[in-house]
Amino acid sequence: MRRKNLMAALLCTFAMTAASIAPMAVMAEETETVTEAAETSAEEETQSEEAQTEDTQEDADGEAQTDTEADGETEALPERPDYQALDYVTLGEYKGLTVADQPIEVTEDQIDEVVRQNIQLSDAMETVTEGAVEDGDTANIDYEGKLNGEAFDGGTAKGYDLVIGSDSFIDGFEDGLIGVAVGETIDLPLTFPENYGNADLAGKEVVFTVTVNEIKRMPELTDELASTISDGEYTDVAGYRDSVRTDLEAQAQEQRDTMLKSDLLTQVAGNSKINEYPQEMVDYGVANMDSYYRSMAEQYSMDFEEFLSSFMGLTEEDFSEQLVMAAQQNLQQELYLKAIAETEGIEVTDEDLAAAAQDFGFETAEEFIAAYGEDVVRISVLQDKTLDFLLDNAVIEEAQADTEGEEGETEAAEAQTEAPADEPEEADSEVQTEAVTEAATEEQTAAE
Predict the structure, then answer these.
(1) How confident is the model at residue 444, as a pLDDT?
(2) Mean pLDDT, to the nearest integer, of 386-415?
(3) Whole-angstrom Cα Rg for the chain
(4) Overall average pLDDT of the 84-108 stretch
(5) Which stretch of DSSP H or E encloses residue 68?
(6) What does the buried/exposed string (b/e) look like for 244-259 if buried means 16 or more CB atoms within 10 Å of the residue's CB?
(7) Could you state, in order of their start, the residue ranges of all structural domains in the chain?
């Protein structure tokens, strides 16, 4: 999983625009959606090109052999250049750095939540045809929200599955359904919070008319149910819950390592200096990003100039300038880690490649390389191996608990999740637009 997170980041380097060295897991999350969009766009383009019959393979570093059309001509993306990072980087201290470690703790509530999710995914919930909604039930509902007697956009849905107690809707919505019987319709007079994301609804009094269609209730976890939801791997409740705990601890350990490595990379960046960027790699990154955004324009059936203006507010000249800065930013992490690897003699072995292939579900390294390209795989594994080296040579101190900060984060998270369906499709579009804009326009800043 550790290598998989790093690979996901490298496979779409043009999407990484963080000013500082970002955590591997965070970068993976940021790039997965963009990678999928790029792959989808490339597939659609390939299907529509009647003159071309050759299969093309896309790897996220762009060194893929994906073709793009410019001025009616097909232009293949360049291969990934090779270079010596120490020709461009002056390294500072990178061994013996101190990082604060948060203890790993898995609670019974966390285990209960995973069990609940697995029961839901296994379609093992009990359907209640008579009775009323209780806390923890999943109520299938139809609802319509009205402001001043008029239905407002995004406030209506049918057949919506709502987990009572999930706090996914505004205050009072879920509590108001407790005690409502199957088939019953109720009016819920509610008030949107003052800080609600939609200014037209923030602080406004509304009425939701809700009908409970069906109730699904969480069954008691028995040995039989534990066997069912684990596909027979565990035949008793205790063994199954222990397995959930083990998985959660492994995930927590991975997150802990990711955060520690992120901290170490930030320190390395602060101690070191990039004197200049390898021009061939900058050109390579620019070509990849340009190709990606042109494919996005085609996906939206837009002229490229129109796409840049509508989604980014940029001219082609401004866009080209921003690509150079983005390409340089995307190189920062690789330059630091590659320079350390060159200094310490860290190299990628056949065993490293085989292990990475296993992490990705490939039987052999050859299959792994065939899928992503050897250069991409090797630079990915090299960076991951160098991160392990930094962690192995770090001084790890136990961090002090910050209960006030945790409470603040919890309140912020609760405020953010307070929302009934308010035009989800439109909201997703806005988020995608912002991501595209940030990816191409955010200026380069010094790594903190």
Answers:
(1) 33
(2) 69
(3) 26
(4) 94
(5) strand 67-70
(6) bbeebeeebeeeebbb
(7) 2-105+245-441, 125-218
**Going by C-beta distance under 8 Å and a sequence separation of 6 or more, which residues neighbour residue 69?**
45, 49, 75
Determine how many CB atoms are found less than 10 A away from the CB of residue 36: 11
Q: Amino acid identity, residue 239?
A: G
Q: Which residue has better confidence, 60 or 311?
A: 311
pLDDT in the model for residue 401: 53
- Asked if residue 208 lies in contact with residue 198, where contact means CB atoms within 8 angstroms, the answer is no
Contact predicate 378/3, CB 8 Å: no
* pTM exceeds 0.90, yes or no: no
How far apart CA 308 and CA 209 sit, in angstroms, is 43
At residue 29, the pLDDT reads 31
**Rounded Cα gap, residues 184 and 182, in angstroms:** 6
Identify whether the C-beta of residue 199 lies closer than 8 Å to the C-beta of residue 208. Answer: no
Backbone phi, psi, residue 141, to 5° = -130, 155
**Maximum Cα interatomic distance, the chain, rounded to a whole number of Å:** 74
Helix (H, G, I), strand (E, B) or coil at 390: helix
Token pair of 399 as six digits: 């961090």
Q: Is the dihedral of CA 159, 165, 168, 169 positive or negative?
A: positive
* CA-to-CA dists, residue 14 to 9, 25, 66, 216, 438, angstroms: 9, 16, 15, 44, 12
Q: Is the pLDDT of residue 349 over 50?
A: yes
> Does domain 125-218 correspond to CATH entry 3.10.50.40?
yes
